[in-house]
Specification:
380 residues; alpha+beta; Butyryl-Coa Dehydrogenase, subunit A, domain 1; Butyryl-CoA Dehydrogenase, subunit A, domain 2; Butyryl-CoA Dehydrogenase, subunit A, domain 3; four-stranded mixed sheet; four-stranded antiparallel sheet; 12 helices; 51% helix; globular
Length: 380
């Protein structure tokens, strides 16, 4: 796919920002400490990244999905963790509100997350309900004009910084599976809301993750987002867009692996010449280039389908599946090309190898994507 002038300009601007602002010092500190960089968060918000997909009437840019994936790709190309800073509000965080929120909810919440003033997390996963999201055991029981929430969510990205969270809870206690689940927007400062310990992760450090614990949390009834008992369907619709974002993130990681490998292969000498001269190295680089380009076409294609209001569920899953697996293949080859140096933290490919791994897991594992793809093909 050939980008038009508008999207080429956007791509250039995203790349310039990432290469200028995501300094090696910042990247290293994030990876070492796992702490959230508030200064960079506010700077990205100032440039409008947090509101790229949020409609203009709610303080965002109202940009298309192709712009959104270009942003994720270019930010992740420099640092995959910092990509999530801009992605969340446009994807899993803001997605449920944009899809199902009423006018009052959109006016109240979206402008504040588009501006970066507030952070909104997405809390679906539970200790016993990962790939099987329909296994949700968190409950929300109506008591007068309030719902009382009880349960535990796990692996919630951004929970330690979040002002609000989209919580999925079972409102029809008699229903099984995906039926009877509803969405709520919950103030994280409400009594009864607490956090688990910050998770010590393999990669994507700098965007803290923790459990969210709900103990008799009383939430006003008007915090119900979308129709009662229909939350699961909106979770799946939100994940369609989220998977596109992860696919673009994986693409950025894969491209960075290729960039680093080409640079190193030209500079590193063995047996009196650059290792790029050796077929064993050059063929790995060729394989990486093919993976990157194929992933890019799949990601951009899925974005364009969504922009044209076509059913993109299968395309988003294909893009996420292929790009995530490609990122891991490229990361493996990048470390191999660097040899012993690839195992040392001083070299970027060491972090890329760790960062790539999550792409085949979160927002639907590669196996879940295979289920979605095959299900779409075989359902008729």
């Amino acid at each position: 796919m050939i980008l038009d002038k508008k999207h080429l300009m956007q791509q250039k601007l995203f790349r310039q920002f990432a290469e200028t602002e995501f300094t090696k010092e910042i990247q290293d500190k994030l990876d070492e400490t796992g702490e959230f960089n508030w200064e960079l968060h506010h700077k990205m918000a100032k440039y409008g990244f947090m509101g790229v997909k949020i409609p203009e009437e709610y303080g965002g840019s109202g940009a298309d999905n192709l712009t959104y994936v270009l942003m994720n790709e270019e930010l992740a190309r420099v640092d995959a963790a910092l990509c999530i800073y801009a992605n969340t509000s446009n994807s899993l965080g803001g997605g449920p509100l944009m899809l199902a929120g009423n006018l009052e909810q959109k006016k109240k919440y979206l402008p504040q997350i588009a501006s970066g003033e507030k952070i909104l997390a997405f809390a679906l996963t539970e200790p016993g309900a990962g790939s099987d999201a329909g296994g949700t055991t968190t409950t929300a029981v109506l008591d007068g004009d309030e719902y009382v929430l009880n349960g535990r969510k796990c692996f919630i990205s951004g929970a330690p910084m979040a002002d609000w969270a989209i919580i999925f809870a079972r409102t029809d206690l008699q229903s099984k599976g995906s039926k009877g689940i509803s969405m709520f927007i919950v103030d994280m400062k409400l009594p009864g809301v607490s956090l688990g310990a910050h998770e010590r992760k393999m990669g994507i450090n700098g965007y803290p993750t923790s459990d969210v614990v709900l103990e008799d949390v009383r939430v006003p009834a008007d915090c119900l987002v979308g129709p009662l008992h229909k939350g699961f369907a909106y979770a799946m619709k939100t994940l369609d867009g989220g998977r596109l974002g992860v696919a673009a993130q994986a693409l950025g990681i894969a491209q960075s692996c290729l960039d680093e490998s080409v640079k190193y292969a030209k500079e590193r000498k063995q047996f009196g010449r650059p290792i790029a001269d050796f077929q064993g190295i050059s063929f790995m680089i060729a394989e990486m280039a093919a993976d990157v380009e194929a992933a890019r076409q799949l990601v951009y294609h899925a974005a364009v389908l969504k922009d044209n209001n076509q059913d993109a569920t299968k395309a988003c899953s294909i893009a996420k599946y292929f790009a995530a697996e490609a990122a891991n293949r490229c990361a493996y080859k990048a470390v191999q090309i660097h040899g012993g140096y690839g195992y040392i933290k001083e070299y970027k490919v060491e972090r890329l190898y760790r960062d790539a791994r999550i792409c085949t897991i979160y927002e639907g594992t590669s196996q879940v994507q295979q289920m979605v793809i095959s299900g779409q093909l075989l359902r008729d």
